[in-house]
Amino acid sequence: MATVLVLNGPNLGRLGTREPDIYGSIDYAGLEKLITDKASSLGFEVEVRQTDSESELIGWLHEAVDRRLDVILNPAAFTHYSYAVSDAAVQVTKSGRKLIEVHLSNPHSREEFRHRSVITPVASGVIAGFGADSYLLALTQLAV
Ligand code: DQA
Questions:
Q1: How close is the Cα of 58 to the center of ligand 1, in Å?
Q2: Structural domain range at position 117
Q3: Which residues contact ligand 1 via a Cβ below 6 A?
Q4: Which end of the chain has fewer surrounding CB within 10 Å, N or C?
């Protein structure tokens, strides 16, 4: 059974209480359960993780390369400025695995600083703006 890493960046552990008008009322545990249920219905093992640390997130991307795993990545605010996360993400796609960038919100309909992603140029694709469904759509794509 293929394993998929679902990696979440800073502040996503605060879902439910963090700006529910933008991110919805689902909390992180609820998001994790939705992802886990969808993954098992598609026949995947899934490891869902969240960190506020850039260093930890980079370590997990290196792990994906070493274990040859596809990745669903919500880099959160790192999306917009972290060349270090981008440099780690490109190693995943260059190793022949998929890396799908996801966002709960649609960053392009929000503040100007969110319009730029340093992850998109190295990602296999991007799914944004569909709340928790962004992750489920990414899993569906990995099943194709
Ligand atoms: C986000 C969008 C980012 O701009 C923001 O910094 C986040 C969450 C999203 O899922 O909509 O933390 O990645």
A1: 17
A2: 2-143
A3: 11, 74, 76-77, 79, 103-105, 107, 114
A4: C
Q: Is 122 helix (H, G, I), strand (E, B) or coil?
A: helix
* Residue 15, pLDDT above cutoff 90: yes
115 is catalytic: no
Domain tally for the chain? 1
Question: What's the CATH number where 9 sits?
Answer: 3.40.50.9100
Distance CA 143, CA 79 (A): 25
Q: What is the pTM of this model?
A: 0.98
Using one digit for the tens of pLDDT, what is the confidence trace for 36-93? 999 999 999 999 999 999 999 999 999 999 999 999 999 999 999 999 999 999 999 9
pLDDT higher than 90, residue 1: no
